[in-house]
Amino acid sequence: MRGSVDMNFLFTLGEVQRLVRAYADKEAARFGITRAQWAVLAKVERNEGMKQSELAEQMEMQPITLTRLIDKLCDSSWIERRGDDTDRRVNRLYLRKAGRQLLAKLSGLRSELTATALEGINPADAHRLLAQLEMIKENVRNAIQNTPAEPPKKEQRYG
After folding, report:
1. Domains and CATH numbers, the chain
2. Looking at residue 54, what is its pLDDT?
3. What Cα–Cα distance (Å) separates residue 127 from each residue in 18, 34, 118, 130?
4. 63 and 84 Cβ atoms separated by less than 8 Å
5. pTM score of the predicted model
6. Which of 44, 29, 28, 43 lies closest to 96 in space, CA to CA?
7. Tens digit of each residue's pLDDT (9 = 90 or more) over 40-77
8. How far apart (Å, rounded) are the C-alpha atoms in residues 159 and 143?
């Protein structure tokens, strides 16, 4: 059993992530939004008034990539940038009324996506699966934090 888990776990986890993303992209398009834009809206909703630079860091995105996403969200009147009272170089992000309304609709979509993904899995097993995924996430996070960064090895060349 161990051998098959070793061979299939990471591949299957990656494939599930890829498929869920593709499915979410396809379904979010019905609302005129991309999955990435949806993620930005959701983060802004949870942390209104956050700096654009903080959001880029949280989302592990390059600032220029996030700026383009935010430009589109502003053009659609879903979020707005407001200057910072103490630092005029800083933009803070806030949801607009249309953004709140869209997120309300998207919460129904999130439930649909989850129901589809978990079809045929009983609720107790789904809760157990989620707890196990959280444990896996924590294990990997701890491994990253506790592993000393090794300098890249120089490739040996012969001849």
Report:
1. 2-145 (1.10.10.10)
2. 92
3. 22, 28, 11, 5
4. no
5. 0.75
6. 44
7. 999 999 999 999 999 999 998 998 999 999 999 999 99
8. 38
